[in-house]
Amino acid sequence: MYQPRDIAQGLRRVGPYGATMPTHRIFSTALTVTAALVFSGSSLPSRAATTNRARTARTTRARNTKPKTTTPSTSIASSVSSTTLPSVSSNNVMTLTSPVMSAGGPLPVAYTCDGAAHTPPLRWTSGPAGTVSYALVMHHVPGPGETHWYWVLHGIAPGVTNIDDNAVPSAKVGSNSVNDRNEYAPPCSKGPGAKQYIFTVYALSKVPAFSDSEKVTRQVLLDAINASVLATASLTVTYDRTSVVRAGVAP
User: Cα(201)–Cα(99) distance, rounded to whole angstroms?
Assistant: First the structure.
């Protein structure tokens, strides 16, 4: 740093390329450069500032080169615990057939009031696991809100899967809506045209219990087995008395 005494004494300093320059001109040039830096908002960097900038640059490069950690995405499906739904066994599908009639076909006259009034033969496949008894109902729906029933059986052993033609079934017999007796009432419709009659077998997880004095109608039976039905099967047939009545056969 040049001192004021150098200017006062007029000493000379060696300038660029070996030329000499008066001291006051050197001092004046330095003041000019310094003023330009101050007014322009710039300053000469200090060693500490330079060091700090270098350290910051190294840190930035290190961050940019750091390998990114990928967080595996979790889908909605995988975040919800799986729930195993209960499977439906194919054994729950039962079928009910007869060797003398087919689904949608006619009910033979022998099983009506116009014939021998026999009980019809029926066959069904075994119920699902847990079946301890069967029940069977034959009914007819003549109109909305009205039901007639002709045959009610309950307490059928789990090893029984058929009823023979006009045989006494190994079961307890409920009442019918025709004569209110505990027996089979053969269909004897008085209206014209074909009527539908439905046989339904129920596989049950428990044996329904009734007192000896209780009248077991179709509805009483259905109410009693409502919570214990494992599977069902139905067979629907028709019977048309029109031709029989015209021939004068019917009573």
Answer: 16
Pairing relationship of beta strands 122-124 and 172-173 according to DSSP bridges: unpaired
- How much is the pTM? 0.63
> CA 215 to CA 182: how far, in whole Å?
8
pLDDT tens, position by position, 86-145: 222 344 689 999 999 999 999 999 999 999 999 999 999 999 999 999 999 999 999 898
Strands 146-156 and 133-143, by their bridges, are antiparallel
Q: Is the torsion defined by CA of 112, 117, 119, 120 positive or negative?
A: negative
Using one digit for the tens of pLDDT, what is the confidence trace for 152-207? Answer: 999 999 999 999 999 988 899 999 999 999 999 999 988 789 999 999 999 999 99
**pLDDT tens per residue across span 137-166:** 999 999 898 999 999 999 999 999 999 999
* Per-residue three-class SS string for the chain: CCCHHHHHHCCEEECHHHCEEEHHHHHHHHHHHHHHHHHCCCCCCCHHHHHHHHHHHHHHHHHHHCCCCCCCCCCHHHHCCCCCCCCCCHHHCCCEECCCCCCCCECCHHHCCCCCCCCCCEEECCCCCCCCEEEEEEEEEEECCEEEEEEEEEEECCCCCEECCCCCCCCEECCCCCCCCCCCCCCCCCCCCEEEEEEEEEEECCCCCCCCCCCCCHHHHHHHHCCCEEEEEEEEEEEECHHHHHCCCCC
Q: 221-231 burial, b if ≥16 CB within 10 A, otherwise e?
A: bbebbeebebb
